[in-house]
Amino acid sequence: MTHKLITFITTAVLFTSAVQAQTGISVEGEVSRPLKLTAADIGRMKNVEVTAADRDGKEHRYSGVPVYEILQQAGVTLGAQLRGENMSKYLLVKSGDGYEVLFSLPELDSTFASRVIILADKMDGQPLPAGKGPFRIVVPGEKKPARWIWEVRSMTVRFAKE
């Protein structure tokens, strides 16, 4: 092998590793089991499909993992434990470009809410387009998709105590 070919292969491997590292999602904060989820980890989780209108006003089919399922894996206080001071906990979701959105835990909990908020990896049966993925939060039923954060990198559970 020539020196240029070895350099090219090394660069390609390093770039691929960097891209793969960026596709992971950390789940941390007020959790009993902090997580570093890879795309493969997320792919093995329960998958659901929701239909919702995006900014373009058109209905799309999104598939992915209910955020509730991810929080359960991290040991977040949900279900019967979500009462008292735990009602002041929230989830802060952050994207690769620094955009952040907030959800109260009850609106993510299936024992409180009837809608399912998902971490989507597909739209209309296809992977999310470049610049929107690999993961995006989809919130069916909201009039404005301002919390439909794309390029999700982290989820942090915190208390809203003063």
From TrEMBL:
InterPro entries: OxRdtase_Mopterin-bd_dom (IPR000572), OxRdtase_Mopterin-bd_sf (IPR036374). Keywords: Signal. It holds the Pfam family Oxidored_molyb. Residues 1-21 form the signal peptide. Residues 25-142 form the Oxidoreductase molybdopterin-binding domain. This is Molybdopterin-dependent oxidoreductase. It comes from Chitinophaga hostae. The lineage of its organism: Bacteria, Pseudomonadati, Bacteroidota, Chitinophagia, Chitinophagales.
